[in-house]
Amino acid sequence: MRKSKAVSAWSLVAASALVLSACSGGDSGSSDQNGSSTDIKSMAVGKAQNGENFKLADTKGYEGTVTVGIDDGYSGYNNDTPDTNTSYNTYVLTSVLAGADVLDGNNKVLLNNDVFDSWEVTSKSPQTVVYKIKPNVKWSDNEAFDCDDMYLSWLAHSGKAKTSDGKQAFLAASTTGYQLINEATCKDDLTFETKYTEPYLDYKGLFNSTAIMPAHIVEKRANVPDITKLTPTSDAAQLKAAGEFWTNGFKAFKAEDMPASGPYKITAFDANQKAVTLEKNPNWIGGKGGPSKIVVKAMEDTKAMATALQNGEIDIAASTQPDATAANTMKGLSAQGVTYGSASQLTFEHIDLNYKRMFKDKNLRKAFFEVVNRQEITDKLLKEVQADATPLNSIVFMPGEQGFKDLYSSKAGLGAQAAAKTLTDAGWVKGGDGIFAKDGQRASFKISHNQNTRRQQTVEIIISQAKAAGIEITDDQDANFLKGGRLAASDYDAALFGWSAAPFKAEQKSIYITRVDDSSQNYQGLSNPTIDSSFEAAVKATDEAVQLESYQKADQAIADEYATLPLFQTPSMWAFKGIDRTYMQSYNGVLWNAGEWEQKK
């Protein structure tokens, strides 16, 4: 699933949607380490990682509290609804909720062997995947983590459960992959079987950590005796009650309704201070290492985050919002025992143009692309963080991946003169104020984004570039733009944010295909039959060559629409002291292996 980051990083969530602020990509090996300390690369794997399996190592741990700074605040225990689906929730929940997969720092997809014994394709026709849960896995409230929880995950994400008025009972951020499962069965308490109507190569991205909510809590609060007896076609009233609680009941912090299945549980949440406190889950079945307590604080000002590390207010600075000044501050703290790291993320920064407003005019979209010099943005804002950072020229593929093609160098950054010509040829006329207009509509609009210094600087650069072409742009900075509902409600002209994805490209489908209901992440109103059919063909493909060709066709069609302008693949930057090793995983942040951190000797 894509998730938005305030980064919204290429905010994909495994198996269903992108997350606001992080992005998609494949298992392409270790990330670029440009600018990092020399030992950072070795920290990208878990201490007990073995082959295709991941377990948290049983270490001596860390007595005391580790304080972590991230860019934006935690906002919801259920991160798979459209208005909570952000990378910053994932960064906290990765150590609180257990799923079938774990991603290491190299974006390798591993079986979560602390909780699952296996995930096995037992048949190819129909595709059948069987999950085996380990015995004695429990939630922190002492209830069993078992097949009921997997079944609820499918029911909530399938898109098949409807209320009596035909609306979705569960409002999931994405249904990709899950909607292809037509049979989900608990063979016993520890065996969950899924049968697909069509092949789905990215099945390992389903049932990730944030997708699996506690079924026993939903049963209790929605008065549903047994969630596994609730089917998409069963009692509409019970479906509505279960879906209402799943969608909305996990939002306000209530500890008794938000148990942990991972190594840490949430024990406190201060919305005003934007701080979440995590303590060890006493029922965690895996390794017993890690800090006694972890406090995660939101620090939107990356420079302030770096200063907080320098002053000893935090132990880890973990930012998906690269900032040159902050990077230089953190690099200069080596004498204090600080280790600095930077790596390319599965996240990309981009600008979406809203088809529901003035950007329904393709010529205006084209002129906007032409006027934006992305190289200037990259040079001014990223070089100190990652010296070889360059503009991104694909939406579907990351540089170095098989299938990547440069689709945007010929469309973007062509200059003010080219943009002005595009508008003039399309009947736009420059007025006395120097701004183009057509049919009473001036070429004047806002670029909206969350409270973020680098994004503000990005817009400032674009304002200057556009002015020379007769286009007027205003900076619309809103601290709640991503998590307050404006993005999901399409309340913008142009939206500057990021998508974060696990390495499963099928999750991108939800963002770019024609929107048919509120579960879609296509907030900009893009609708193109070639994009739709290409993603459909890619997701259903059984042949990898056909899949690749279909994704390339979708990528080309998105570019030809002038719908989304990719700016750059976002490099992370993080620094830490007092801990033996941390690595900022591209999709899950630094806490992905917090349960094995140790005090630095």
Describe the fold and architecture.
The protein contains 13 helices and 22 strands. It is of the alpha/beta class and 601 residues long. It has a domain of 224 residues: Dipeptide-binding Protein, domain 3 (Roll), CATH 3.10.105. It has a ten-stranded mixed beta sheet with strand order 11-12-13-4-14-22-15-21-19-20, sandwiched between helices. α3 packs across α4, α5 runs parallel beside α6 and α12 packs antiparallel against α13. The longest helix has 18 residues. About 5% of the residues have low confidence. This is Peptide ABC transporter substrate-binding protein. It holds the Pfam family SBP_bac_5. One of its GO terms (molecular function) is peptide transmembrane transporter activity.
Throw out a few tags for this protein.
Dipeptide-binding Protein, domain 3, 22 strands, globular, 601 residues, ten-stranded mixed sheet, 13 helices, four-stranded antiparallel sheet
CATH class of the domain at 347-570: Alpha Beta
Residue share in helices? 10-25%
Largest sheet: 10 strands, mixed
Count of helical stretches: 13
Gyration radius, in Å? 23 Å
Give the termini separation: 39 Å
- How many extended strands? 22
CATH homologous superfamily label of the domain at 347-570: Dipeptide-binding Protein, Domain 3
Looking at the structure, the CATH topology of the domain at 347-570 is: Dipeptide-binding Protein, domain 3
The assigned structural class equals alpha/beta
Unreliable residue runs? 4-18, 20-33
Report the sheet-strand fraction. Answer: 15-25%
InterPro entries: Peptide/Ni-bd, SBP_5, SBP_5_dom
Signal peptide: 1-22
GO molecular function, one term: peptide transmembrane transporter activity
Protein name: Peptide ABC transporter substrate-binding protein
